[in-house]
Amino acid sequence: QVQLVESGGGLVEAGGSLTLSCTVSGLSFGDYAIGWFRQIQGKERSAVSCINFNSKLIRHTASVKGRFNISRDSAKKTSYLQMNNVKSEDTAMYYCAAEKSPYCELQPLRMNFWGQGTQVTVSA
Questions:
Q1: Cα–Cα distance for residue pair 87/65, rounded to 1 Å
Q2: N or C terminus of the chain: which is more exposed, having fewer CB within 10 Å?
Q3: Interval 24-29 mean pLDDT
Q4: Over the stretch 39-66, which tens digit does the pLDDT of each residue have?
Q5: Cross-strand pairs, 60
Q6: Sheet containing 3-7: which strands, arranged edge to edge?
Q7: What is the 3-state secondary structure (H, E, C) of the chain?
């Protein structure tokens, strides 16, 4: 059974930092790109960042470039989303997802497996 479990969400002040984790089980971690997405209630899920299987390809959506970093640890089967200088507009439910691909695409429809999400709330 494939599982992606996000953790690390919570309440953070604007300008602060938060690191989300996504631990994967039930699949060959090295065969999958990992993507992070977010969703505000009532709106569509949107892409944040992704990282390919060997960490050589990384993409960020424009609004988080220079503030967010994505990484992965194969030994721990975990991906991390480091969120720096957070803003109120970063408030959302954050999801990680896995895509069986050597590439990294910021497209929700391409993802094969999803986690349940972790809430991030940025206070002013």
A1: 13
A2: N
A3: 97
A4: 998 999 999 999 999 999 999 999 999 9
A5: 49
A6: 3-7, 18-25, 78-83, 68-73
A7: CCEEEEECCEEEECCCCEEEEEEEECCCHHHEEEEEEEECCCCCCEEEEEECCCCCCEEECHHHCCCEEEEEECCCCEEEEEECCCCHHHCEEEEEEEEECCCCCCCHHHCCEECCCEEEEEEC
